[in-house]
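User: Sequence for Universal stress protein below. Tokens please.
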Amino acid sequence: MTEHPPHRFERGTDGPKVIVAGLDGSDSSLRAAAYASGLARRQGALLAVVYVQPVMPAGAAYGVPVAETTGEIAEGLVAEVRAAAERVRGIWDVRWEFHTVRGDPYTGLVTAADELKADAVVVGASESAGHRFMGSVAVRLVKAGRWPVTVVP
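Assistant: Structure tokens for Universal stress protein:
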């Protein structure tokens, strides 16, 4: 009789089981979520849609209801994903979950991908000119080298 070592998680050995898609409401993030849903459908993987709520203490200091605003954005994104899933029910069967984490986009996506044991991460290309100097979330995720990262234009 052969003794088997205890089961341990291995990324990407049998195809992706969990695909994380970063969603912030931008056009490129919506395209990334659509692309990720196609990957998840073809691979029989779970699509984990992740919205990172920004933490803006400066806005809160001026009395801006930051938590309410970002919560409303998250609710709107969930409604949009649900509506899209409902439109294609029966012809486009994808298992999906929506997750919200707080923080900066890079750290939030890394945290979510780690907690969900993601096999792949899909994000939209940055639409901000400032990222040419500071580095986009997508570039930082690729440099982290922890998952295959797909950047959708």
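The two ends are 52 Å apart (CA to CA).
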